[in-house]
Write a structure and sequence with these properties.
By secondary structure, the protein is an alpha+beta fold. It is 34% helix and 28% strand. Helix 7 packs antiparallel against helix 8. The longest helix is centred in the C-terminal third of the chain and has 25 residues, at 285-309. The protein is elongated. Mean pLDDT is 94; it is low at 2-14.
Length: 414
């Protein structure tokens, strides 16, 4: 999950607005009880966060963490607890209106490979460890919300379905939420909230991305005997250099990155193959399309230059493989789900930080489902690094914020 601060909000759907104002919701006895309870159990929530982070869950290998959350969902009294065909953990809390469903999701997977030391270190209010924020925090707060709703005996109009989803990171390509939207919960989701952001972020629009693996291939040969023959690595170098000189707009924010390279066999061999993985991103579908075209032109130009530059008749070829695609989110600034959460933040005295990002919310937005990603308190630093940290100072306010947002969107029955 990557976040970029942006003042502009953005598109979608309909929300059956609660009869109570945000201030009335916050002042109601049951909600006040829930808010006080979730504050009181914040130390337990932090311990749950640490426990979660210490269960390894690389993308595509989330099973151990999924089993843990399946057990916790059952212990907390959710109904129809299950792991679906994609590997998502699902538990339901029925509402009074079977036609309306709010999904609350936090992703199970991390970017860290098997074998990574996931032990969390604690120094006062600072927790340090891979995935301690992204998304152990979201998962732990989700459990705290369920506990608080139960403790205060809060009933809602909407069914609330809690999900620990798979495949949010990297080449997971949002496959867990994609499965929810198109298969497991198809046609049921009225609103969607992901818990996967720092502090008081409110992600209202999703960054789109195209990800490619580019592979140059040729005959190779001995570095001395076949000197002058085309080299896959030389062509790759030409391509990287051309990509590095591409111009992109600062607004709308558009970026590119060559994140991984591979190729060759030995120091004295002309490389037969060489590859790179490339990430293209933008908050604008139009700019992403333009960047995609420039990228492809750079790759083809590099191939042509390397083939033309060598006297040997051997020629290289190139394959450009799409390995990941995330939709650009489209959502109106006045979408009811956005305005409801901003209003609840105001009622709690919380300063909303509107942002754009690349999170699970992008998939529901693609299918026209009102969707946001909500920060759950604390301060994250070093995301996607083994030195990732989470500052717990006043983190309970984030837990309260998530609880209040869920109650407001789901419609409290007072």
């Amino acid at each position: 999950m990557i976040v970029l601060t942006l003042l502009a909000l953005l598109p979608l759907g309909t929300l059956a607005v609660s009869a109570q104002s945000p201030d009335e919701i916050v002042r109601s006895p049951k909600v006040r009880k829930a808010l006080e309870f979730i504050r009181a159990i914040e130390p337990e929530t932090i311990e749950e966060q640490i426990r979660t982070a210490e269960i390894p869950a690389p993308t595509f290998k989330e099973g151990k963490r999924a089993e843990y959350y399946k057990r916790r969902f059952s212990e907390l009294g959710l109904s129809k607890v299950r792991i679906d065909a994609a590997g998502n953990v699902i538990g339901e809390r029925p509402g009074s209106d079977p036609s309306r469903t709010l999904v609350i999701a936090a992703h199970l997977d991390t970017v860290f490979p098997e074998g990574t030391d996931v032990k969390v270190k604690r120094n006062g209010n600072l927790l340090t460890g891979p995935g301690i924020g992204d998304d152990a925090r979201g998962l732990a707060v989700m459990l705290a919300v369920i506990r608080a709703l139960n403790e205060a005996k809060i009933e809602t109009r909407d069914n609330i379905i809690f999900v620990g989803d798979v495949g949010e990171e990297g080449l997971g390509n949002l496959r867990g939420v994609g499965h929810l939207v198109t298969e497991e919960l198809k046609g049921r989701i009225t609103n969607f909230i992901a818990l996967d952001a720092s502090g008081y972020d409110l992600v209202t629009r999703e960054i789109g991305s195209n990800r490619y693996r580019v592979t140059f291939s040729g005959p190779g040969g001995h570095s001395f005997k076949e000197f002058g023959r085309t080299s896959a690595i030389h062509a790759l170098g030409r391509a990287i250099e051309k990509i590095s000189r591409l111009t992109v707009p600062a607004d709308p924010r558009t970026t590119y990155n060559v994140g991984k390279i591979d190729g060759g066999t030995t120091v004295n061999s002309i490389a037969q193959t060489a590859s790179m993985e490339v990430d293209l991103r933008s908050v604008s579908a139009e700019e992403l399309s333009r960047l995609d075209a420039k990228f492809r032109q750079a790759v083809e130009a590099a191939l042509a230059e390397e083939n033309a530059a060598r006297p040997d008749g051997a020629r290289l070829s190139v394959e450009v493989e799409l390995i990941g695609e995330r939709p650009v989110g489209k959502q109106a600034a006045d979408a009811p789900i956005i305005q409801t959460i901003i209003a609840m933040d105001k009622a709690l005295g919380i300063p909303t930080n509107p942002t754009v990002s690349s999170t699970d919310s992008g998939m529901p937005q693609r299918f026209g489902i009102p969707s946001v990603t909500v920060g759950s308190g604390g301060t994250w630093k070093g995301m996607h690094s083994v030195g990732e940290s989470f500052d717990t100072t006043d983190s309970y306010r984030g837990s309260q914020r998530v609880l209040a947002a869920i109650i407001a969107v789901a419609g409290p029955r007072m």
